[in-house]
């Protein structure tokens, strides 16, 4: 199926989100859409999937103009979408989730779940998904849940599949598996519209790349283009993708965690006897698949969990048992993993969000009264310094794009004297140009002598920022390793393999591969005279 977007324009009042966008997705093609946050990619996908009506332009399927009044119309036309945040019911089985909204019935009008299960097994076997139709979704790993979303689209006979940031929650191994699945889908004739900010993955799997900047198509590229060229096209200026930070100069160890245990509401140990320490002027990055205790670790540091035992000390002072306000006043800067829920008050202005942890202190407050002028001046300064794209400091934070909301949180936390900086997913949803800037700001904080703790599921980010890497698995530290540890070793550790064992497995695998290559080369050399003679 061939999909065309011609002159798609979408306006909201005086704001133009999409400006005469043209995109053509050929049958059996993986077409990548690249762009900064706020560039208009999501709006365009919402238009394509029937969630928004275009202000101007048209959508064509196999050369015929179509109009979608909702996702049902898009699905009926052969367009499926896997959202970044999965649209699954956790307490339902795989089969129940797949059947939802496209129920098959048998005599008497009863739900024919067996037919759905058979279809799931058929698709799962064809693409090697290994998905059990009877499994509860809440019991499945994130990577398998994503496969369920893909199966949902294929059961509805999607000919064009939209994948919105599909690797955001996957391990390196799961990412590789997904890229293989995409290639299989392509080989079977399915077209894929692939939205991603990860240039390495885009280059690995795309057939063609369209770049959107500020609502307009600014160019296209082949996967053979360098990451530097793609990044420059995305942001409109040259981008240095290599941080090139100087080696750390660690000072005294001022932050220590000893025997930290955090219990979930059901009594399960989500952090289990964890030990870590960070010196002044050092970045310790925590790697791991999301859901292995990273969230609870960072929230325990801030004082957000009640069921905490063990010790967390900063500058020799105990933080366990202290209130969030006391921890912040002790000099802890904190960037939560979910900015909309925990990092911002969406209805408050950008200016107000920039002083959330200082609103009752000078120079922003005098007694019970705040100083609007000083709050506004601070906002002007931070907006300029951190390149926060907002009409003004008075704009509600909830009206900004995700990347700009993240800049607000980072600007607030990095704009006061710190004794410890903790950032969980510091650049989640941030475009490549802003990632470059935020990474440099984090390193600047390190170079001021501040201990820095980074938690990220982006392995590239971990390797780029870290001076040392701690890998977390089921609430425990599998190992703390140098920054230059091979990615394959880190991947094994993220699956629970201890550091020494992971290094040994990797060395063995390399030796086996080398021996196999040598054997093949020798065999080829032995056959050469015969083939020449022939």
From TrEMBL:
One Pfam family it belongs to: ABC_tran
Keyword terms: ATP-binding, Nucleotide-binding
Biased composition (Low complexity): 500-518
InterPro entries per the UniProt record, alphabetical: AAA+_ATPase, ABC_carbohydrate_import_ATPase, ABC_transporter-like_ATP-bd, ABC_transporter-like_CS, P-loop_NTPase
Domain ABC transporter: 3-239, 255-499
Region (Disordered): 500-534
One function term, GO molecular function aspect: ATP binding
Official protein name in the record: ABC transporter ATP-binding protein
